[in-house]
Amino acid sequence: CEILSSLPLQMSLYFNVYFFPFWWLITVAILYLKYPVLSDYYKFILVTIMILVSLTELIRLYLGYVGNLLEKVPELAGFWLLTLLPQLPIILFLLFNEGLKIHSLERAVHIVFAAFLSFQVVAAFFTLKRMVNTLATRFRLTEFHHLEEQRPGPG
């Protein structure tokens, strides 16, 4: 009975849980300060991004914890997809779009958050790969044992 969950992924999730409120407070405070000087479409985009990231991050971290600790492939796959598709591109958009008038503190917290997300994408991929291979092997062995039990005995 091999443990399939990933300790580095779990440590990253643990620190991400504590970093996310800090990131959120810094980002909202700086958004409040620079809101009057932003153009209308950037105001709309940033408010939408903050709502989307806040909701997605809560779901993503929950799926990561459940998928990794309980070794559940669907939850971990959902975590991986939510990390890869909405979260990482959004953070990279916030980090590299100069039209947003990025503050240095804001850039620093975005870099740390992007590092968390990048590490989690890679770690979750390899953990998922190991879990799927192990579960497929267990399934094949179980099917083999069922066939052996159903096979008629000699004579």
Descriptive report:
Keywords: Cell membrane, Cell projection, Cilium, Cilium biogenesis/degradation, Membrane, Transmembrane, Transmembrane helix. Pfam families: Transmemb_17 (PF09799). Part of the tectonic-like complex (also named B9 complex). One of its GO terms (cellular component) is ciliary membrane. The chain is mostly helical and about 160 residues long. The protein has one domain (about 5-150). Helix content is about 85%, strand content about 0%. It has four helices and no strands.
Mean pLDDT: 93
Number of helices: 4
Helix content: over 70%
β-strand percent reads: under 5%
* SSE string: HHHH
Low-confidence stretches: none
Q: Provide the structure class.
A: mainly alpha
Kindly provide the radius of gyration, computed on alpha-carbon positions and rounded to a whole number of angstroms: 21 Å
Terminal CA distance: 36 Å
Number of domains: 1
**Total strand count, please?**
0
| Gross geometry | elongated
Strand count, sense and barrel status of the largest sheet are: none
Subunit structure: Part of the tectonic-like complex (also named B9 complex).
Subcellular location: Cell projection, Cilium membrane
GO biological process, one term: non-motile cilium assembly
Membrane topology: Multi-pass membrane protein
